[in-house]
Amino acid sequence: MYCKNCGALLNDNQSVCLDCGVRVGNGNNYCQHCGCPVHPEQDVCLSCGADLKQTTGDIPSDKNKTVAILLCLFLGCLGVHNFYLGETKKGFFRILMTFCCGIGEILALVDLILLLIGSYKHSTETYLF
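The structure assignment produced for this chain is given below.
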């Protein structure tokens, strides 16, 4: 893995780049997968083909994790946090499960725990908003 700010090679357990001091995952000057320079507006790395806008499983960089946690806490049974994160299919499924089966609260509790511990896996569908 490479620093997205300066392109330096990183260890798997590093949380901050030792060359530039930026938190791992922040920045948009270099590809995180191959370390090649990229334009900040690029969607895909031209060297390795990796998706630059989102790393698989991470919350999208333009979304705030705290807002997602609060939405999940207060409106999670209606899937509002899923709509905020751009997971529209999952949000509609959550509404359906709440009104048909009454298990939306349980699903929201699971999502809340996963968001709090940092293990929430974001689906890679297109954004609604």
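Interim note for the steering committee: The mean pLDDT is 85. The CA atoms of residues 38 and 113 lie 35 Å apart.
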